[in-house]
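Quick one: structure for this chain?
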Amino acid sequence: MAHGRQSWPAKRRLFYAKDTLVLLAVDGPANEAKADRDAAEWLPPRVALPLPLRRKPIAIKTKYELWATQSERMAMSAVLGSC
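Got it. Here's what it folds into:
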């Protein structure tokens, strides 16, 4: 699901793809676990990542003005509530 990215021009998509906020080095199993799921379906595990990295989906959606489904908003609110 693109959450608003599908209408971006190529230059903006390239900027997004290279943004260090968006990039996160992970191992193969972690990458496969996330796949193309959104924040409602997958968030970084609480024990695996420090709080700033668990907040990344929120920061990315805010910076790029991407929309979120109701279930994503609820999942992201739960992350903020655990701070």
